[in-house]
Amino acid sequence: MRVDDGLLIRSFRGTTGGAEHFICVEAPTGLRIEDEIDCIEEGYTQAREALHLTPESAIFRRVFVSDVLNQAVAVGRSTFCGETADNPVAVSIVQQPPLPGSKIALLAYHVESDAPVTKRRLSPKHILIEKSGLRHLWSTRLCAGAHGPSTSAFAQTRAIFDDLVNALSSQGGILRDHCVRTWIYVKNIDVFYRAMVESRSELFGQQGLTRDTHYIAATGIEGACAHRYDLVAMDAYSILDLSSGQMSYLNDFERLCATKDYNVTFERGTRIAYADRAHHFISGTASIDKAGRVVHQGDVLRQLEQAMENVDALLRSGSASLEDMMYFIVYLRDPTDFERVDGYLSERFPDRPTVIVQGPVCRPEWLIEIEGIAVVANDEFNLPAF
Predict the structure, then answer these.
(1) CATH of domain 1-114
(2) Confidence tier at 149 by pLDDT (50, 70, 90)
(3) Does pTM top 0.90 for this prediction?
């Protein structure tokens, strides 16, 4: 639903689990950061009023900024980064400049429910949300908080995952069985990505995630947190108390090879099934063929089409399609490609919440990557409600 220029909403309403709302708010270009924040606040308020959402329905917000070191303080004072003691919200702030030239953009997730929903902050970086007998752990702004340039990307990655592992352990969970999705932000990805991958692979092996088990849906992309010397940061989503069969993995081996075939430790997509709906978490997906090769080098629109076809294939393996995508996040290496990409997406998905940011992908030849979440109706009432 397009509410206004710069404000898009998409909702899913189930039969037993309530409604989910995904809200995208973009600021106009050419303003001071304070004025752009005002525009985001105004648009976000307009969206919540249009949907009749209470403050308690807010679950997660990701704030994309163009210059986090200079903007973090002003953004942190905004209403969309604020919370009260009895109503915590998982807020992510990441430097990925919104395109075509804004300083800030917002992607927000709200849940309406007739069933009780309780929210509790476990620590500054972890929020536990309980609904329908399941506990959802949202972890945001995970970083090492490095105070100097001596800590490596390898060591920082380990510290970040240790933080998540400890948070899960405090609730009786483990990384292998309960972490559904990660978003990993790597500063200067062309230089530091490999160290992050090596550190993650080592930790996964120690946590029981191997070629013979499974990995975790993920995006590994250029981005930065608000600490000058941090090379790696992360957000994560985990679910405790899952029943057998609720979590499965999205693959189409006729179109895409397994990531383990080229020694990368992530799942292309993860499906979580509930009684009345299924969530499909699509990892960062680029223009790749079934041999793991980059295709359509140098042509951003053909790469976008290939990536979309890959996403559709993954979704169809889980009984969904591109039409079920609730939003897209699009990462561009070259910001001058924005107009062509935006034109394509606006024509094909005119009312889909979409955030396009400058975010180089892990291989320089990839000009674009896309990710998002699809929600589709399900009819397995032996499973827990959402």
Answers:
(1) 3.30.1330.40
(2) confident
(3) yes
